[in-house]
Amino acid sequence: MNAARPITLLIAALGGEGGGVLTNWIVGAADAAGFPVQSTSIPGVAQRTGATTYYIEIFPIKTAALGGKRPVLALTPGVGDIDIAVASELLEAGRTVANGFVTPQRTLLIASTSRLYAMDEKIAMADGRFDQDRLIKIVNDNAHGSLLVDMAELARQSGSIINAVMLGAIAGSGKLPLSVEQLEAAIRSDGKAVDGNLRGFRAGLEAARAKMPPLRLVEKKHNAPVTPDLLEHETTYALPALAQPIAVEGIRRLIAYQSLGYAKLYLDRLRPFVELDEAGGAHGQLVREIARHLAVRMSYEDVVRVAQAKISPARMARIARDELRVKNEPYSVHDFLKPGIEEMCQLLPGFLARPILRLSLRKGWLGRVYFGMEINSTSIGGYLRFLMLAKLRRLRPYGHRYAQEQAQIESWLALIAQAARLSAGLALETAECARLIKGYGDTHARGLANYATIEARVIRPALAGDVPPARAADAIASARTAALVDPDGESLGKCLAELDGQTAFHVAAE
Hints:
Mean pLDDT: 84
CATH class of the largest domain: Alpha Beta
CATH topology of the largest domain: Pyruvate-ferredoxin Oxidoreductase, domain 3
Largest sheet: 6 strands, mixed
Number of domains: 3
CATH architecture of the largest domain: 3-Layer(aba) Sandwich
Radius of gyration: 28 Å
Distance between the termini: 85 Å
């Protein structure tokens, strides 16, 4: 028997991503090419707590050249014995590393940078997501070589499923004794969604060969109309790579929320921070965090947003499927709303809203007078009421609330820019304070009040330069954490009292 050893391939794919089909393509191509091949699968756990793994061994000498002998191929992967590890999601790539299958001496790790959040991440009280930068570092530090691209985005762009993109990335790595043509032939012989799978395969192949992100640089023609795709592509040369996925999602969110022009304003607001990020050595982290919080702040909750959510087809489908558990039976959904005077004035122009709010404040109506209503969202009348309110989003830029929000956003961005000139860490902590401003009604009012207190008592004194940047960043982080723990402000008050006891902050505040 020749001393050649099998090529080992481990694939980790989530449910619905076609990991079994991907395995069949590879096995089919190897078998058609005359190589001894064997595959097995190990089911994962449902509800996003682990992928199904597929293990393939290909003996790199054709059966015809073995003189009637057959190699012995293993049924299960061995720790430290994997040549190629492929993961459809970044956390699954981390799992393969943690399980010992990826080694610096041997393994090429091919993975998608996209995320499908695990149950532990979703149920966390705060931001429970695993640190993506840390996952990428773990992959790069523990693999002999790594190829990381956003395969989910490539699949979306090519109109295919991620398994086809994964096959293209494997082909582009050049680590299998199979040609591109042989793998394409396996897709064709399968006979299912051939055109789409071939597009996905070629997208993965090109990304692997170029070793570049899936969003391509495009030349912007002079006076060319701005389109959603063009605006997304602009992020590839306007923003650091680390911030691009967040920014693209922000653009999509704001187009759906308001308009294409509003999404363009979002990108224009991010551009000035690229230079500040580079000067402070933040390596794209500052731009990424601003992009994340800015998208949320610009899509603030108002009466239009609530109306859109109430009649969303996805909401109705979720209620029927998960809460009522009905299929063909009739059902109705009744929404109980209690808007106050401030909510009723949100879409009014400022010259009308301000006198109403001043009068309400003098009379003591704010926070006390509400207009209770019950609306059957599944009835024609109820649906039309919400639909008419949702259609008022075109009036949003002329409303009193819009003007308030944009002024607050610009003030927040100015503080971050000022902080970035002192320290990247200080700028990051200032940007993170946007976490306080969220929700609707009383929740939003409390968060905004806490933010205003922290801005006046901690952020602005810190930016005066009398406090060392590292100490100032710690103070902002402490105040923000206290406000998040106790929205009513008691913990924040204690934290601020402790800071007032520190001479530097006390003098700066005065």
